[in-house]
C-alpha cells in the first residue's frame, strides 16, 4: 500500500519518497493508522520487516502541533535493549524529523559513555530513546522525569525480556503515567511478552505478520565442513575468490571476534570487530564504516547484531554456529532483505556436525554442504 493512503502528513510522505520508500511493508500498513489514532499496539514481525518506521512515522505525525515538552519531561519514551539499536532508532527519528515544520528533538541515552553530556542535552527533548540501565541512572540524578510521557515504545521487547531487563523495566513502568499509549514491537511472541502486554495494554490492536518459509528463499545457503584450525584460511579464501565486498561474520564471543578480525587484517583484508567490550566510539566507527561500504568485513557477536540493520547486506557467514535455530534464522535473516538476494555461509567443524543437523531439522531447512578439503586454501 502507498504511504499516502495511511494518513501521514504530506511532508512525511514526501520525505519517504526522497528516501525511495514508496510502498509500505505489511507491519507499517497495519500499525501506522492505528498509532495515528492513539491506539495501543502489540506488533509481532520479523527483524528487518520495517518495524522501526511503523512507529517512528506516526509518532512524529502525532507530535506535530503539540505543546513543546517541558524541560527534562519527554513526551515519548522508546526503550531498547542495546546501544546500537538506540542509535539506529534515533537516526530514523532524526531523518524524518528534518522534513517537518515543527522539528522534533530526539535524544539517545545509553551506558558505556559519560553521563554528563546526556544530562546537559536533556532540555527540550520530546522523544527519548534509551536503554533501561542508563535511563534509571538519569532518573536517579533527577536529569529526566517520566511524568509527562504520553507514548511508551518497547522495541525488540522479546530481547529486552530475554536479556534480563525485567527488574529495571518494573522500576521504569512504575514511574510512568497510567494513562498513556503503549506500543510493543517484537520479532517473536514469547509467554513473557504475552504476560507483559496484558499488564501494559487495554484492548491493544494485535498485529502479527506471519513469517513463512518463503522468507528465506532469497537467501542462498551453503555449509562447509572444516576443521577448527582451517576456518581462518577458509574465510580468507571465500572473501577473495568470491570477491565479497560487504561481509558480516558471526562469532560466539568477543575474544573470537577480535581474533578473526586481527587475522584478516594481517592477511591484507580490511576488517573490524564489534562486541560488548569495545568502546562505544570504536563500535560506532566500525558500524558506520561498514554501513557506508568502506569496511569489507565486520565481525560481530549475536548480542550486537540487533543494531546492524542494513537493507542490502549481501553476505552473512557463521564462523561459529549459533546456539539455537532461532538465532540461526536471525543471523541469516540479516541478508536477503527488501526483495534482494543474499548469501549465508556456515562453517561446521567435526564436533559441531550434530548441532548443525539439529538446527537445520528444527528450522526445516536443507543446506548444501561442501568439504573444505577439496579447496586450495593456501
Main beta sheet, described?
7 strands, parallel
What is the CATH homologous superfamily assignment of the largest domain?
A: P-loop containing nucleotide triphosphate hydrolases
Secondary-structure element string: HHEHEHEHEHEHHEHEEHEHEHEEHEHE
Q: What is the level 1 CATH name of the largest domain?
A: Alpha Beta
Mean pLDDT reading: 87
Q: What structural category arises from helix and sheet content?
A: alpha/beta
Number of helices: 14
Number of domains: 2
Strand content: 15-25%
Mind telling me which CATH architecture of the largest domain this is?
Answer: 3-Layer(aba) Sandwich
Please provide the count of β strands: 14
Nearest-angstrom radius of gyration? Answer: 21 Å
Give the spatial strand order of the biggest sheet. Answer: 3-4-2-5-6-1-7
Task: List the uncertain runs.
Answer: none
Spatial gap, N to C terminus: 52 Å
Please estimate the helix content: 25-40%
CATH topology of the largest domain: Rossmann fold
Shape descriptor reads: globular
Amino acid at each position: 500500500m502507498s504511504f499516502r493512503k495511511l494518513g501521514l502528513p504530506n511532508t512525511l510522505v514526501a520525505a519517504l519518497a526522497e528516501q525511495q520508500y514508496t510502498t509500505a511493508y505489511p507491519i507499517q500498513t497495519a500499525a501506522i493508522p492505528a498509532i495515528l489514532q492513539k491506539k495501543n499496539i502489540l506488533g509481532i514481525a520479523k527483524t528487518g520487516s520495517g518495524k522501526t518506521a511503523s512507529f517512528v512515522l506516526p509518532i512524529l505525525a502525532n507530535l506535530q502541533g503539540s505543546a513543546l515538552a517541558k524541560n527534562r519531561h519527554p513526551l515519548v519514551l522508546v526503550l531498547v535493549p542495546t546501544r546500537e539499536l538506540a542509535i539506529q532508532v534515533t537516526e530514523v527519528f532524526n531523518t524524518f524529523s528534518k522534513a517537518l515544520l515543527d522539528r522534533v528533538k530526539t535524544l539517545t541515552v545509553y551506558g558505556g559513555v559519560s553521563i554528563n553530556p546526556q544530562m546537559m542535552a536533556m532540555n527540550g527533548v520530546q522523544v527519548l530513546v534509551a536503554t533501561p540501565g542508563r535511563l534509571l541512572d538519569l532518573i536517579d540524578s533527577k536529569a529526566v522525569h517520566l511524568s509527562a510521557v504520553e507514548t511508551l515504545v518497547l522495541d525488540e521487547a522479546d530481547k529486552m525480556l530475554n536479556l534480563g531487563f525485567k527488574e529495571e523495566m518494573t522500576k521504569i513502568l512504575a514511574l510512568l503515567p497510567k494513562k498513556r499509549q503503549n506500543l510493543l514491537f517484537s520479532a517473536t511472541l514469547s509467554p513473557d511478552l504475552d504476560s507483559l502486554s496484558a499488564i501494559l495494554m487495554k484492548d491493544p490492536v494485535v498485529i502479527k505478520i506471519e513469517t513463512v518459509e518463503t522468507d528465506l528463499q532469497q537467501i542462498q545457503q551453503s555449509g562447509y565442513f572444516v576443521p577448527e584450525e582451517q576456518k581462518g584460511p577458509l574465510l580468507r579464501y571465500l572473501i577473495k575468490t568470491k570477491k565479497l565486498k560487504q561481509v558480516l561474520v558471526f562469532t560466539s564471543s568477543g575474544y573470537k571476534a577480535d581474533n578473526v578480525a586481527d587475522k584478516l587484517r594481517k592477511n591484507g583484508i580490511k576488517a573490524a570487530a564489534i562486541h560488548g567490550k569495545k568502546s562505544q566510539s570504536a563500535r560506532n566507527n566500525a558500524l558506520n564504516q561498514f554501513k557506508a561500504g568502506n569496511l569489507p568485513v565486520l565481525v560481530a557477536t549475536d548480542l550486537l547484531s540487533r543494531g546492524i540493520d542494513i537493507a542490502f547486506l549481501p553476505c552473512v557467514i557463521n564462523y561459529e554456529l549459533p546456539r539455537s535455530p532461532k538465532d540461526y534464522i536471525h543471523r541469516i535473516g540479516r541478508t536477503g532483505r527488501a526483495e534482494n538476494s543474499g548469501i549465508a555461509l556456515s562453517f561446521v567443524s567435526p564436533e559441531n556436525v550434530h548441532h548443525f543437523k539439529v538446527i537445520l531439522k528444527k528450522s526445516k531447512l536443507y543446506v548444501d554442504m561442501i568439504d573444505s578439503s577439496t579447496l586450495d586454501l593456501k
